[in-house]
Amino acid sequence: MKPSEVPLDAVQEYAVKERVCIRPLLRRVIDRETGEAVLVALPCQSTRESRCPSCAARARTLRMHQCIAGWHLEEEPDVPVRLKEPPAELETSEDVATTHRGRTTRRRTDAADLPRRPQEDRTIGQVFRASDGKMYRPSMFITLTLPGYGRTVAGTGTPQNWREYDYHRAALDALYFPRLLDRWFQNLRRCAGYKVQYFGAVEGQRRLAPHFHVAIRGAVPRAVIKEVTRATYHQIWWPQMSRPVYVDELPVWDGMDYLDPTTGEPLQTWAGALAQLDLDEDAQPAHVIRFGRQIDVQGLLAGTPDAERSVRYLTKYLTKAVGETYADQAHDAAYEAHIDRLHDEVRWLPCSPSCANWLRFGVQPKEAGPGLVPGWCFSKAHDREHLGVGGRRVLVSRGWSGKTLADHKADRAAVVREALEAAGIEVESAGRMAAEVEASDGEGRFVWAAVVSHGGTSAEVLMETVLERRRWREQYEYAKSRARADPPVDSRSATARTPGMRAAG
User: Region labeled Disordered — which residues (predicted)?
Assistant: First the structure.
């Protein structure tokens, strides 16, 4: 049977087994010197298993190596860590604390005070001497959760009584969970006495509330971690988000402002709403988010089975969206209804100052323009599969390993390339069709163009990609056998399944 005659679903199943992208991006590359045109398939690089299992698995593996690379460092990484700056990786849409200009920063009376310790200029953990004379440099694995919103049925995550379940608060907590994590890291660094570095992942619990697994470099007393968690909160000083003003008839755009559909009066602007909030002495925050009582703290040592197991557990659900985490319960009508009710709240609540949902609450979004429709905000946080978690799932501090994710990916490819070159195997893709390759006239030799395929990727193109990947893998296995040793397992390690040799990609 010719490759073109093989059913596409069969080829895709085979591609998944070979860890090859099943929905590659097609590019036509023209060599300006020879006139030759070839079709190149680039991996889609999706991080979702439901879209491409192969690319999602590679992305998870790369994150695992990034986590391992920085967790138990014994020397400071060559990256400046600025303690006073919030972690850039959180990428919240706007710092809510600074949005409200006139509000006091005094701590709430119902929150515990935070201890302060003198700060040491280090990011690595301390070394401890055991009774047997051995030296240890422990690190930590911590799990943080949100509070409960009502009683749930054991083992299912569904509410015992959905009418008593606080879906509104659950949705708000999910939308602003990254801001609470940002505050927790700031507080922990002040209380730990050194520049704590972290690698964490946001995941969904069975009850659909997000929780956070985080690897911490160095050891912090458990009592301090629990005290910081209890004392951490975040206030959102925005206009009220509990009572919609417009439900059936929505405001209309007149070219300059959104107008009340009945009176024709312009809605309050975002700046005006904040100014009014500043003048109200009795104003309360629109929402206050805190952690739940459940917190798990473990001390771990490098190279132990518990540490390796924690890395796999930390990245376990990175290939799934929050709404897909417990997809095995999709056949359960009660669980599906639970997802729908939470999504209904998440869809209509504001996620940022520029969210279109502010129109429902009688406020024009920040920098408002035409075409805003409540319930159709561009942020993926409102989608059913994300259920409020719209930012990055992996949060990594700047000083974690001294390298970016792209650096780790390049290092893993370099290990494979070096092994092949040491075995005398020519790496065809090292400079093939690269953008920096010049022709005789000094201009770029290769011209890349996207290929629009209305029928999707053909079975023939996908099969060629699978065969090419198999040939690369066989070459790599041969190179390893020639060296009589596996490549080193460190931040630059690469498995036989992820050669990453395609220069065009």
Answer: 86-119, 480-505
